[in-house]
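Pair request: fold both.
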Amino acid sequence: MNTAQANPAKNSVQRSHLGTLSMLAWTGDPGAGHDMPYLLLYSLGDGDGGPEAGVAAMAALVGTAGMKIGSEMTDATAASYNFPVRLLVEGGHAVLNMPSLSAQCAAPPEWLTAVDARGHAHLMIATRPWPVAAPGEPVAEETLKGYLGADETLMTCGHALLPVSRLRR
């Protein structure tokens, strides 16, 4: 699993508090019937004001994305749903565009296969910092499970199902 740094755009979120943002694409185990493509947007917690200010800034980011923190899933796959977050998949990359930032990361082949089959991905925006997962470095499956398997991470994320867009040719 690879990560890539995000580039915040102008917004009302305290961008300096976000610190280093990163995005990670992965799937569950297709052999076990868990082939959902996931995207995780997270901060290293190294922004101005420290990790606590980063948590507040990430929570504001979730709000500008039109999502709620907790277990409630925002389903943006309905054709009539006007959601401010867009997911573009092109050239082996996942590109996330939202009012507060744009981010992209390389997507592994199994993620691309899953997103092609489903036509959507599950986005999670984590408010809890994850300083262990450095941008551009692979993340071990056990490390990912340890972070996302913790209630203090999973229940403090914003969750959304995003339809996939592609460039017209």
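--- second member of the pair ---
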Amino acid sequence: MMPAARESLLDAAYTALARRPWSAVRMVDVAAAAGVSRQTLYNEFGSKDGLARALVRREADGYLAGVDRALTTHSDPRERLTATAEWTTSAARENALVRAMLTGCWSERLPSPALSAVSSTSAVPAQRRADGPLPSPGDFVSLVRDRAVTVLAGPGTPKSDTADLARSCELAVRLALSCVAAPPGEGGVTELVRSALQRHAG
């Protein structure tokens, strides 16, 4: 099956989830919305749980792709970390699955696949990946921190500087996550992260 068809099935599932709780989303409706047969949907994802895992995996990947973009937006490292924090809070605000993944708080409305890997019999590589472990909130902190360090450190950075940088990156990520859980007032995440990084560097 073409990756495009898989994407349109995931889009249809995401749209259905925006309108009703996951428990009320029916495979037959997802297939119809994507313009494929129900059999095609089952061939691709195996089950409704498989579809849920694939959807969560895709949203996790989309969030991390946004992190990669944010880390290359400015030349100033602090501004890059601030942009990453801003992206984290906006992605979580706009996407209930991203918010659930980052906070570990899965509402009744959402699918809540086990984060541990499930045994996969799928012949579809993308589904085998989705059946693998899904990132926990702690995993996201590490993933984003490590990506930030890689981009900001550059080759030949001394180990001691990298350790400091890793702490600054983790601080920015954790501040962003706290803003997801408890949205800040005026100035928002931008001011919080800027002032924290200022103090941290000083």
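Observation on the second member. Residues 48-70 form the longest helix (23 residues).
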